[in-house]
Amino acid sequence: MTEILEQRGHLLTEQVNPNSQSLDQMTTLELVDVFNQEDTRTITAIAAARQELAQAIDCIAIALQRGGRLFYIGAGTSGRLGVLDAAECPPTFCTPPDLVQGIIAGGAAALIRSSEDLEDRAEDGATAIAHHRINAQDVVLGITAGGTTPFVHGALQAARQRGATTIFMACVPQEQVRATVDVDIRLLVGPEVLAGSTRLKAGTVTKLALNILSTGAMVKLGKVYGNRMVDVSVTNRKLHDRALRILQDLTDISREEAGYLLERSGRRVKLALLMHWTGLDPESGEQLLASHQGNLRSAVDSYKP
């Protein structure tokens, strides 16, 4: 670990960007333009990591199907992005809160107040793994832009010892920082516009990658029909309206009929669609969905009156 820390000054994320060396002398428009030009590198980085991202999606989906959980773990910006993605899974996919979890060095307080000094404690990462009782069914995804965060490495090492599937996500090449994990994702966006400020391109590309991973895994779990979030949690007016529109778009029924169907299904869009397409009552529909692990398309295709 000491060797990793000593090489931080040579990391890709710490280098000086030649395109923004006169940042403090630029006009406001030039400043916006250089950010915009550099941010295009995030799309290229995602494309370059497509194989690893696909591998990670499959690992996560298999683990969740088998009763495991997904944990994001990081410090600072990386940790906050993991917590954010985890927090958005329940309303989007109606998942239980413990299915996808975010762990950040310093705990909840670090979400709103910087506590970057805590990232240097590898033992805290290991403690977090033990605290959450992570086991061989789970997946632990360590996020660290510069790749050297001891908190993340300590967590990944502890997770491997417990038999969990491990994924590493960093914005430096493997030859700069190596990681012994099952899937190694490198998102190489180059030096930041503001040297060393990895909340910029590194943060953006991390958010893009997490969007792909969590959404991709949920698609594999059958929580999406076509490109509709049929497992959406109907908890407010906006989401109620979205649920009605999904039902209307996929069935060609009126808004009034969609509202009646949604209420009969207990406000479960997936079940409402199944009931409409098969004529089943809510209880029978629930049983059919359960027999297909909640996959709506599979349940509908298998139905024989």
Keywords:
305 residues, Helicase, Ruva Protein, domain 3, 2 domains, five-stranded parallel sheet, 8% strand
Characterise the protein shown here.
By secondary structure, the protein is α/β, with parallel strands linked by helices. The protein folds into two domains: 2-220, Glucose-6-phosphate isomerase like protein, domain 1 (Rossmann fold); 237-302, Helicase, Ruva Protein, domain 3 (Orthogonal Bundle). The chain contains twelve helices and five strands. It has a five-stranded parallel β-sheet, sandwiched between helices. The radius of gyration is 22 Å and the shape is globular.
How are the SSEs placed, and which strands pair?
Layout: H1 2-6, H2 28-48, H3 50-65, E1 70-74, H4 76-93, E2 100-104, H5 122-131, E3 139-143, H6 150-161, E4 165-170, E5 183-186, H7 201-220, H8 237-251, H9 255-264, H10 269-278, H11 282-291, H12 296-302
Parallel strand pairs: 1-2, 1-3, 3-4, 4-5
Helix pairs in contact: 2-7, 3-7, 4-7, 5-6, 8-9, 8-10, 9-10, 10-11
- Architecture of the largest domain, CATH level 2? 3-Layer(aba) Sandwich
CATH topology of the largest domain: Rossmann fold
Largest sheet: 5 strands, parallel
Give me the secondary-structure category. Answer: alpha/beta
Outline the low-pLDDT stretches: none
Q: Average pLDDT, to the nearest integer?
A: 94
Kindly give the count of domains: 2
CATH homologous superfamily identity of the largest domain: Glucose-6-phosphate isomerase like protein, domain 1
Helix content: 40-55%
Number of helices: 12
